[in-house]
Write a structure and sequence with these properties.
The protein is an alpha/beta fold. The chain has 12 helices and 18 strands. The strands form 4 sheets. Strands 3, 5, 6, 9, 10, 17 and 18 form a 7-stranded mixed β-sheet that branches.
Amino acid sequence: MKMDALVKRYREEGLWLEQAEVPVLKEGEALVKIHKTAICGTDVHIYDWNQWAQDTIKTPMIIGHEFVGEIVEIKGNSPAFKVGDLVSAEGHVTCGHCHNCKQGLKHLCPNAEGIGVNRPGIFAEYAAIPLSNLWKCDKDIPEEMYAIFDPFGNATHTALAFPVLGEDVLIMGAGPIGIMAAAIVKHAGARRVVITNRSDWRLDFAKQVVPDVITVNTKTTDLKEVREKYGIDEGFGVGLEMSGNGNALNQMIDNMINGGKIALLGLGIEGGIAWDKFIFKCLQIQGIYGRKVFETWQKMTAMLQSGLDISKIITHRLPYTEFKQGFDLMNSKKSGKIILDWTK
């Protein structure tokens, strides 16, 4: 049986819409009919074929890992799931036998494989997903929200790494994950939330998604002026570094209160980091990767059920056959999350 799929066929820029075999299930897997997928920054790296992708991806490969769909077949014992369930899935497939997995810390598994990166992905009409990775969806929440639970989870893991109730929070980087993090910390009771970027379009978009966030273009405005204006006298209590930019991290360090806490999600930070200031201020730092399995998923669901609204983070909805337009929009840096619909 054949299906449509987006395949990284060649070691060059692009993806190819092809006919592929519907996956044959292994024990402990479910066959999921894909309803909606979202394009991730990782997918863009693979599409563009940057150095990381060249070093990581084995071709040919069906890519993609952000999705929602319906179980159509199960192989093995599955008391938690049945055919017809609406599901999404954790994108990191862990080994289950290392020290961290046995401690219930799956997000720290050193042997984790990424769906759509190290194993076949979900940009297809059907995908085989381990039952242990599935998340049953509350059908009262719009399906397309579950298609972005992966990046929403990154934002949640980072935003809630430290207590934020009553804190002034600084977020460096107004990409979709940074913007979602702003919405989360506001929902969790932060006092002032400041988000920075060097793109006015990104900052305007952040305001659309989170109207009461304070936006700052660091090309033209000094954060110390912002602190003075909003009464953040001694510095920010919590910092969320989403940009992967060394200069941004240094600005954050300069504007943290002594004993402040920084969660780092952004990758690729280079350059001379002001570690002396970091030490003298007695700052705490927490590296963030992925999501806590499944604690983060429970928190995401609960926040949406209790009124968190991040729906405007989705800016485009396209049939999967128009995937090239979706990747062009992502590369333009003037989009939020983009949904590809596999039901049409």
